[in-house]
Each structure stands twice: as structure tokens, then as C-alpha cells.
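Record minuted for completeness.

…
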Amino acid sequence: MADLLGSILSSMEKPPTVGDQESRRKAREQAARMKKMQEDEKRKKVEFRKKMEKEVSDFVQDSVLQKKKYKPMGKIERSILHDVAEVAGLSSFSFGDDEESRYVMIFKKEFAPSDEELEAYRRGEEWDHAKAEERRKLKEQAALEEETASASQKRPSSPSSNYRDKYSHLIGTSAAKDAAHTLEANRAYGCVPVANKRDTRSIEEAMNDIRAKKRLKRGEEDTGAGSL
């Protein structure tokens, strides 16, 4: 029984020492500070959002302004501004090489920046619409001139004269040689050109020749019979 009572007493939590009380107090103070910081951060976000909503609303109602550039701000502030701009129907972009120099620009939808304008902001340059338009026209003119020059080089050049006229003396000589060769071949093989086979006599002359041949043949037959 005594052993059981002793084990129970030994297992009971001992009264906190002075050092334990101090560490617990510090822990409670730190938790309170953290809570206050979180509440302050939340309050600042709410206030910043209200401020951005007011500025964005004024920007939208101003018919003269087309874009608005903000000073560099932190990542959380940029995120809030992007969200406010999206709700208002605006376009927003962040620019800057490092976190400390990052800033936001907002644009009205009808004046949304081109890719060329965005590239200029990313390079840290100011955008001049008039100069950009002049550069665009020069590029289009240069491209048109290049296309015209390329088309003229690809177009086949027409000969100044017909090749038959230019080489008529050679063609004529070749044709004459071919005709002479054909004539010799006809003579060698007893061939008569079709043009030479045509009978140019009239029908009456042809009939008279036929009758004369018949009379001649009949006379020869009669002479042969009389000799028998």
C-alpha cells in the first residue's frame, strides 16, 4: 500500500519552477504579438485594396487617361492591384528586373498595349506611339520593296527575238538536207512520193486515153487473128 501511494505521488506534476513560469510567459507574449501582426497585416491589406479600388475607379472614369503607372511595390500589393484591375475590366502588367524595382501598369481595354510596347517596357524604355508608328511604316515599306525585288528576279525574261528567226539559217539548211536525204532514199528504193502519184489530167482526157488504149489493143488482136 505504501509503495502504491509513493508511486502515485511521484507521478504527479511538480509545481512549476520560476524558470518554467518565465518561459511560458514569453511564449504567451510571442503568440499575442504574432496575432497582432497578423491582424495588422490583414487590416493593411484591406486598406490598400480600398485605396486601389478608389484609384482604379478614378482612372476608369477619366476619359483622357489611357494607362497608369504605379510606383514599385511588394508582391502582395501587386497581387491585390492586379485583382482590382481585373475586376474593373482593365489589363495590368508587372515590369522590372528585380523584386525591389517591380511595378504595375494598368491599361484600359481599348488601349491595350501591343507586343512591341510591352517589350519596350520590359527593357525599361519609354513608349512613344508616334515614333513606333513611323518605324512600323518604314518596316512595311522595306518589306514591300524587298518582295517586289524578289518577284522581279523570279520572273522569267522573254527572248528578244524568236529562236526560229535567230537560227533560221541553221534550220533552213537542216530542212534542205532532210529533204535531199528523203529524195535519195525514194530513188534508191523505188518509192514515189504521194504528191508525184496524183493524176493532174482532167476526166475527159483520161477517158480519151483509155479509149485509145482499147482501140490500140483491139487493132493488135485483129492483126494477130489475120496472120493466122
